[in-house]
Amino acid sequence: MTDSDASASRSAAPEARFALSAAAFEIAPLRAGLLSDQAGAYASFEGWVRDHHGGRAVLGLRYESYAELALSEGEKVLAEARERFAIVDARCVHRVGDLAIGELAVWVGVSAAHRDAAFAACRYIIDETKARVPIWKHERYADGGADWLHPLPPAAGS
């Protein structure tokens, strides 16, 4: 191995599959990155900012994260999905910052040889991301109130 080969292998980081985005992003290039001759199926999930929560009118929200830990834990979730399900590849992007009603907040995409694995992995990724990745939601309500929300971990045995 030459010095340049060693340098290249040291600098070659694993490809990131989980990302945080402070700005709106396009889904089409993310989907295109999952295309493969091995894939006969693609499943995705899009989470949007809705105008209500718990019977209250929502005006907008803000996502905040502990970025370093969020990126690390998000990568773990995607690695687990690749190990657990027969999929070709998967990606997830979560917004941070201020979002308005109707904006895309999170996107998950999965390619697989068959649809069952794609659907199951997609569900797993969004559920685990919501439960484990340190991203917090601060909703602003029409009645003047605001609340920090973060999903509680599932109860034992559920």
How many E-type strands? 9
Largest sheet: 5 strands, antiparallel
Distance between the termini: 52 Å
* Percent in helix: 25-40%
How many helix segments? 4
- Which ranges are low-confidence, i.e. pLDDT below 50, for 5 or more consecutive residues? 1-11
The class by helix and strand makeup works out as alpha+beta
Give me the Rg, rounded.
18 Å
Mean pLDDT: 90
Rough outline: elongated
Strand content: 35-45%
Order of helices and strands: HEHEEEHEEEHEE
What features would you highlight for this structure?
single chain; 158 residues; alpha+beta; four-stranded mixed β-sheet; 4 helices; 36% strand
Explain the overall architecture.
- 32% of the residues lie in helices and 36% in strands.
- With 158 residues, it is α+β, with helices and mostly antiparallel strands.
- Strands 3, 4, 6, 8 and 9 form a five-stranded antiparallel β-sheet that branches.
- The termini are far apart.
- Residues 1-11 have low confidence and may be disordered.
Task: List strands and helices in order, with pairings.
Elements lengths: L2 H9 L6 E4 L6 H5 L8 E8 L3 E2 L2 E10 L1 H18 L2 E9 L1 E4 L3 E9 L2 H18 L2 E7 L4 E4 L9
Parallel strand pairs: 1-5
Antiparallel strand pairs: 2-7, 3-4, 4-6, 4-8, 5-7, 8-9
Helix pairs in contact: 3-4
